[in-house]
Design a protein that fits this description.
The protein has 208 residues and is an all-alpha fold. The protein has 9 helices and no strands. Helix content is 81%, strand content 0%.
Length: 208
């Protein structure tokens, strides 16, 4: 189906990619800190779906189009970044309301919203799509059929990065549960919102 040594090399590279924090990891940490474990793990699942879509689009040739079109790249970058920043600002405002109005009971960001949001972040983060175009072909063996290898690489990357993302989510959520006082929860909400804003800013700083 594919070269075993190439596949092991891809696994190692995927582990490195998963451990290096990027906008996706920042968004997951933001959800974990602001809204807890359930929401964070839902965001991990959403990111996994987004990664599957991004890799599939890349290997189907869409990444090459983005790499050659500055306008399309910029449009997707701004859309994803503004969405993340908007969610972060919302989380910060909610924590401020909690601090100023003791009668207001604020709900955390729902798991469903986090799941949907991170699908969009995974799919519409143009740097990821373009990166896959340059990165993945190095692990394709021309002596084997293309799409079976591509599907295996998509599955491998999704599983490996899903595991590293889940570790980030659980660690951040654990840190949140250790701070149980109302004031600490307010600041954790603000920190989570700040992480989402930072993820949006990191997306804006990517270059084609």
């Amino acid at each position: 189906m594919m070269n075993y040594h190439l596949w092991l090399g891809f696994v190692a590279a995927s582990i490195v990619m998963g451990l290096v924090p990027g906008p996706g990891v920042l968004s997951i940490i933001g959800y974990a800190v602001s809204s807890g474990t359930r929401t964070a793990l839902a965001s991990v699942a959403g990111m996994a779906v987004g990664n599957i879509c991004a890799m599939t689009l890349s290997l189907a040739g869409v990444g090459a189009l983005l790499a050659s079109s500055a306008a399309a790249f910029t449009l997707l970058k701004w859309a994803g970044a503004l969405y993340l920043i908007g969610l972060g600002v919302l989380a910060i405002r909610r924590s401020h309301m909690d601090a100023t109005d003791k009668d207001v009971i604020l709900k955390p960001i729902s798991a469903r919203l986090a799941f949907r949001s991170n699908i969009l972040i995974g799919v519409f983060h143009p740097k990821t799509i373009v990166f896959f175009v340059a990165f993945t072909p190095q692990f394709i063996d021309v002596h084997y059929a293309y799409w079976p290898q591509a599907i295996l690489l998509i599955f491998t990357f999704t599983v490996v990065v899903g595991i590293t993302d889940a570790l980030y989510a659980l660690t951040a959520a654990r840190a949140r549960t250790l701070l149980v006082s109302p004031r600490a929860k307010i600041w954790m909400g603000r920190a989570g919102g700040g992480a989402l804003v930072a993820a949006g800013a990191a997306t804006l700083m990517t270059k084609n």
